[in-house]
Amino acid sequence: MEQQQAPVQRDEPSSLLDDPAPPPPHLHLGSQRPLHLCGSDDGPALRGEGPGDLAEGLHQSRGGQTGDNQKVCCRTSEWADKLDLLSAAALQDPEGFLGHPVNAFKLIKRLNTEWAELESLVLTDMSDVFVSNLTIQRQNFPNDDDQSGAARALMRLQDTYRLDTETVSTGLLPGSSPLASMRSVLTVEDCFDLGKVAYSEVDYYHTELWMAQALKQLDRGETSGTVDAVSILDYLSYSVYQQGALQKALDFTRRLLELDPTHQRANGNLKYFEYQLSKQEKEEDHQEEEEEQRRRRRETHSRQDDYLPERNKYERLCRGEDIQMTPCRWSRLFCRYHDNGRHPRFVIGPVKQEDEWDRPHIVRYHDIVSEKEMEKVKELAKPRLRRATVHDPQTGRLTTAHYRVSKSAWLGAFEHPVVDQINQRIQDVTGLDVSTAEDLQVANYGVGGQYEPHYDFGRKDEPDAFEELGTGNRIATWLLYMSDVQAGGATVFTDIGAAVQPKKGSAVFWYNLHPSGEGDYRTRHAACPVLLGNKWVSNKWIHERGQEFRRRCGLRETD
């Protein structure tokens, strides 16, 4: 049989609005930089003009139009009607509505991809005051990176919480409201766009999942004006081929050709797949070797998790699985009233302390801050929220990282009496000196927001960690939860198999260092992705300097 060329695909379109066009197998696609969906609870609305106001303006701008302009007005009206549906539900409960990942994805997509199409229609007439202002408003809209980030957030949730595409598509996520007004469903176009985002990042695993879901919804009778089965099958055949499933690739290609017999690329791919399968049949002696090659290829093109060996354990803990607390150990955990050795502030009103874990000792303080204090901290932080950073051990500086998806701001004690009060309370409760601690860090984890397993302290291979502060290592962590989370968002400790659930107004405290000053590697922890809702926390990292007589050194390394 004549040697066949590998399947060739078209170049990927530069815009999400273009027709689907997978690239040839030899073309390397660099991964795009995703700006993950992790904003504040205000959501991705316009600055100064919300979606509802925008829809109203679009409706008003169509009046008095005739001729060719009437077509533009009809298209404008259709788009405004769609935006009306989203904004009506969003205005009832903005935080609750945008706390659902499907709602957030659809709103970002509508304000980015579909708006670009509408903009090209209406900007031909600059006479209307509202229309002439569109370009100014556009700069405050989400962009392609935001839309890709929202898509990646959905896939992250899908993986972590083992959600099938049907569950995500219908919006019926665990813990979500059964009210249809509070959730959206993913259309064929939405599923197709999710698959394209995965494809653009050479993630054939998720490409297959979402293209298959789009095809399933088409087969069920859902209509689409922009996506057809041929386009979906084109992506499907190539993505499964890249995962080593030749027979499935051949089946999808044959189905594509039944719909479009003249499809040039599919005809070429059909010959290639048939050739490869016949070659496999003739080389039965090498089946085991080829199966191993296919397995390696599937692993290569499935989820990229090599950089985090403990990912499976981390995700199981996020799902509430494999918690390592035994009944015997559980019986030794207590709740108590804590006055920190009859501290003057707590003699009459002690705080409620609960043991969360025994080794290492992790405690939770309930009702440690008031609602008014938490709202003030959020109010101070919101204008300053920026993409969260981590400490780079190589440079000693703070930098953004793909494994930390949130926004954060830093608040000094001098900025408001409430911040100073919280700092003083931390010192009174823990008995540690907070004058050498870092400023209060306020973090917001939106839909899909997470912080993968990490240590808070500087390790021996990071000799310059926190050197610029001159206050030593991080001896302890105070983690204050300033919101409840509908689903997801737990703090998990991967080394010991512990999971701590967010509870508004409570704070979790643990030591990162042994009394000897050596790091306690059992404190490796992570913030699980937020499945539903918004997660607000504030961190206080307390350093070694100033604790010499408050927490005395031990004689042994693990003391």
Automatic annotation (TrEMBL):
Family statement drawn from the similarity comment of this UniProt entry: Belongs to the P4HA family.
A Pfam family the protein falls into: P4Ha_N
EC number: 1.14.11.2
Domain Fe2OG dioxygenase: 436-544
Gene Ontology molecular function: iron ion binding; L-ascorbic acid binding; procollagen-proline 4-dioxygenase activity
Xref: InterPro entries: Oxoglu/Fe-dep_dioxygenase_dom (IPR005123), P4H_N (IPR013547), P4HA-like (IPR045054), Pro_4_hyd_alph (IPR006620), Pro_4_hyd_alph_FE2OG_OXY (IPR044862), TPR-like_helical_dom_sf (IPR011990), TPR_P4H (IPR059068), TPR_rpt (IPR019734)
Cellular localisation: Endoplasmic reticulum lumen
Domain of life according to the entry: Eukaryota
Protein name stated in the entry: procollagen-proline 4-dioxygenase
Species of the source: Austrofundulus limnaeus (Annual killifish)
